[in-house]
Design goal:
CATH topology of the largest domain: Rossmann fold
CATH class of the largest domain: Alpha Beta
Strand order of the largest sheet: 2-1-3-4-5
Number of domains: 2
Structural class: alpha/beta
Shape: globular
Number of helices: 13
Distance between the termini: 12 Å
Largest sheet: 5 strands, parallel
Length: 409
């Protein structure tokens, strides 16, 4: 791993990292757009018959994606979209196949996250497939639908996988606006797509033409991937000074034996999980050393106790009081910058002498306006899935810059 000697080297490194991501994204989504559109239709048919999405994984990194895809379907962030039944099942290799065998039903959708040929994960996929579930995997695991990003870099793979399941979640709803196109339904209407019209104006009046809708959904897949790549570039390039400074801060924290605490809500909570997994148990291909990192979203007993007895605003700040020490750091993820629990956590961290970093979307909200973090990286968008995808790139590059900063000039 080459240290970065100056600003020109830093910019060149980041430009190269973004170019690699953009190229991989273009290859992946242009090649898979039609299949992703068809998969959205197949998933919509399962949901229409009462099926559920069950996400499975084994590693710490995979578990963050398991939780992320489940929360996106259960708690949709686009106004007017229905909640769809989804759950995450993450367990030890010895127990996962049996647990999935008890849960999965014939109309369910099982989505697997992991490495190629993970024996227990492949066994769980085989059980689900044999039982009639529709199976999807982002690696070679014997699933009916396999979507394999064209890169060996584990961080870029994770970013492309996150974009892919966001796209599946966003576009599966199109077919509920065209219910006559779902198997077993005879309704054939021409209609406006209602709440989706501002996002998908080209999908109106196509109730009787599945092929046309699939083509348009496939085009939308490519469009969303392009938007994601563009927002990643804006976030990282415009936030490069903040990212570089934050990397220096974390270098000092880790060098002194400090710990990084991470927080976020909903999908941002799962990104906190992913960040902590990358630091504490980094992928072997990165060459990174393990770091002290703690995910404050991880313990449901603590979260629910605080929420029940004190209130949801305190779910992270109370943990900062419990675990945060002078010399530690807090990294907060928020798509709005206004989350009260995140604001409270940053405020408490500052009070206790922790260094603070925030990744925020929209216009930065209170976090940016009130200067609640030492380092603020802004993703200027109001589209939550795209914000989270850009933030994933930002914190992956942050971790990389920490490693390079530690090695010195």
């Amino acid at each position: 791993m080459t240290p970065l000697a100056g600003p020109d080297a830093l910019r060149a490194h980041v430009d190269g990292a973004l170019a690699e991501r953009t190229a991989a994204s273009e290859r992946f989504f242009e090649a898979e757009a039609d299949r992703l559109a068809a998969l959205c239709h197949a998933m919509a048919e399962r949901f229409a018959r009462g099926g559920r999405l069950i996400a499975i994984g084994l590693s710490d990194a995979a578990r963050s994606d398991v939780a992320h895809v489940a929360v996106e379907f259960v708690h949709p962030v686009i106004v007017g979209k229905r909640a769809l039944p989804a759950m995450g099942v993450a367990g030890a290799p010895a127990t996962l196949p049996a647990r999935l065998g008890l849960l999965a039903r014939a109309d369910d959708i099982v989505v697997a996250f992991g490495e190629p040929d993970e024996e227990a994960l492949a066994g769980a996929v085989a059980i689900a497939r044999a039982g009639g579930s529709l199976t999807v995997a982002f690696a070679a695991l014997g699933a009916e639908w396999e979507l394999d990003p064209p890169t060996a870099d584990p961080l870029i793979r994770q970013e492309l996988v996150e974009t892919a399941y966001h796209v599946l979640w966003e576009l599966v709803h199109v077919f509920f606006e065209h219910r006559g196109l779902l198997q077993g339904r005879t309704e054939r209407r021409s209609l406006d797509v209602g709440a989706s019209s501002f996002l998908y104006p080209f999908l109106a009046d196509r109730e009787d033409d599945l092929d046309a809708v699939l083509r348009d959904v496939g085009a939308s897949v490519v469009m969303k991937a392009e938007e994601s790549a563009a927002l990643r570039a804006v976030t990282v390039r415009e936030g490069l000074e903040q990212l570089h400074a934050a990397a220096g801060t974390l270098r000092d924290v880790f060098a002194a034996g400090g710990t990084l605490l991470a927080v976020g809500n909903g999908g941002s909570a799962t990104d906190a999980m992913d960040l902590v997994a990358d630091l504490a148990t980094p992928p072997a291909a990165t060459g990174w050393r393990p770091r002290r990192a703690l995910d404050l979203t991880a313990d449901p007993a603590i979260l629910t106790a605080i929420a029940n007895d004190i209130g949801t605003d305190a779910v992270f700040s109370r943990q900062v009081i419990a675990y945060g020490m002078d010399g530690d750091a807090l990294l907060a993820l928020s798509t709005s910058g206004d989350s009260r629990s995140v604001v409270a956590a940053l405020t408490e961290a500052r009070r206790r002498g922790l260094r603070t970093i925030a990744l925020v979307g929209y216009d930065g909200g209170r976090v940016a306006a009130e200067g609640l973090a030492d380092h603020v990286v802004l993703t200027p968008s109001q589209h939550i899935p795209r914000i989270q995808e850009a933030q994933a790139t930002a914190y992956h590059l942050l971790c990389d810059l920490v490693e390079r900063a530690e090695r010195g000039p």
